[in-house]
Amino acid sequence: MLRAKRCAAIIVAGGSGARMGGPKQFLPLAGKTVVEWSLKAFLDTPEISDIVLVLGADDVLRHGPRLAAGRVRVVGGGATRMISVRNGFAALPEDAQVVAVHDGARPLVTPDVIRRTLEEAARHGCAVAAVPAKDTLKEADASTLWVQGTPHRSRFWQAQTPQSYRREILAEVLSRYSRERDATDDSQLAERAGHRVRVVPSTYANLKITTPEDLTMAEALLESREGLRRQIRTGFGYDIHRLVRGRRLYLAGARLEHPKGLLGHSDGDAALHAACDAVLGALGEGEIGMFFPPGDARTSGISSRRIVERVMQRAAARGAELVNLDVTLVAEEPKLRPHYAKLKRSLAEAFGLEPARVSLKAKSNEGLDAVGRGEAIACYAVAALSLRA
Ligand code: MG
């Protein structure tokens, strides 16, 4: 039945993500962004011939050129969801007969659910992906919190997207309710216009990314569904800097009182440099000199904490999580044992780790070679990262 119809999709991803502290549709998720997973599900649905992705104005410029290809067109959204859906609708081919409207923040939708909403919409006019309410529902007074009733759960469904429509019904809804702001989904407007809406049983995994917890669950579900195994990788880092008079001493991101400091293009913090190289080593991404070339005047004298930030951004972009750091300093002076707690705290803070995942210790070099003579401080570091295979 569906084969004879031209089917299209509007994916709305223009939200500001107020509850996530930024647009959630471009957050990294299992190796892609949230909206790319949503898009992939529609691209994997062969019945869909056209996809219009509606993005915020800035995102159209930033991501549009990369995402618009083949069956995908990218258009700008508007101030309300209705305007965004309208803009998407206006960009559809005129002969699209059945249209799925999907929230870009539901990255776990599957081609099966998409196809079934399209089939039901083609047959009955409107169809909404939904799941039966799992928990018992209580009706309660919003201010006093007294329960006022317990409706029979079996009658209740939680609406998701996609919500699919025959073209003429969606066109009618969009023109009749163009100023609508309060509708939490489009299908209730079809109901209001007198159309019957059919529920299409979906999966609980088709969750909407609204809070940081949703992102964690979506990541776990996608990793399991897609067989994206995580593995532990280790990296090793080493650094040494000369100890000279007239410089402040920074180690592990902390300032120590000492008449000498470490000579370097940055603040010379050998502990942070070795730890950063260990993280990059685990990622298989070279060493910090590639990000911060020693001759670059713009980075002269910078705090090595900025190097850490940059390295951890690389790790985050790869979906990697730092598991632990083990750092060994080799120094004749100053004596570092009295500063262990401070150095460890500072190291943990710089890398965003709980202190229990950080180890820091120091050795002397027994008077041997330049480190033993107190002319330099060296550092060795090992990092373990959890990342997708
Ligand atoms: Mg260095």
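qc> The chain has a mean pLDDT of 93.
qc> done
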